[in-house]
Amino acid sequence: AMAPALLDLAHWSTWAVCTVIKVPQLAAVLAAGSARGVSLGSLLLELAGFLVFLRYQMYYGYPLQTYLEYPIIIAQDVILLLLILRFSGNMKRALFYAVIFWGGWYMLTLQKWIIDLAMNLCTFISAASKLAQLRCLWQTKDSGQVSALTWSMSAYTCATRIFTTVMTTNDLVVLIRFITMLILNIWVTATILHYRKTKKTD
């Protein structure tokens, strides 16, 4: 009786965290009127990774509760992207990104091999997203408006998703993705906190 209850708790807590996951990040950017430290490249790669992952789960008819948070995070990422473009005076690029993502979403499922290949690349895309944010932090040695809370919540959802994946679909590609993301999310969180500390002592 323990496992189903734990599984429910893991699902619910993941969705709960994901409904607010980007809120600390959005709040920080809005309050400062600046997206300093937040990597645009990282965000675009993250969005691409999320869209592929969502499309893959839908294509294979996986249970909705195993990926329900993705539409929620994607919506928040889009808002964050628009804020970054607005504060950097690049609003015209929003349309360009929209067309690219829309076209990609459609093309992914034209052939089964395309979605399978994309899903295998998806882990690399998402890992590249985390590394782009790390690089941004290392270069500036300043965590700016980057939210440690958002990144630590991402780590938590990866941990719960490792558990729910093992208990439900046991898809190895999905598992490898979450384990990789967990390690990188913890790394980004630690780096943000590290530069926050060095900032205070300056």
From TrEMBL:
Q: Which domain of life is it from?
A: Eukaryota
Q: Which InterPro entries match?
A: MannP-dilichol_defect-1
TM spans, by residue? 12-31, 38-58, 70-87, 94-114, 174-195
Record keywords, A-Z:
Membrane, Transmembrane, Transmembrane helix
Matching Gene3D superfamilies: 1.20.1280.290
Q: What is this protein called?
A: PQLC3 protein
The species this protein belongs to is Psilopogon haemacephalus (coppersmith barbet)
Classification of source organism: Eukaryota, Metazoa, Chordata, Craniata, Vertebrata
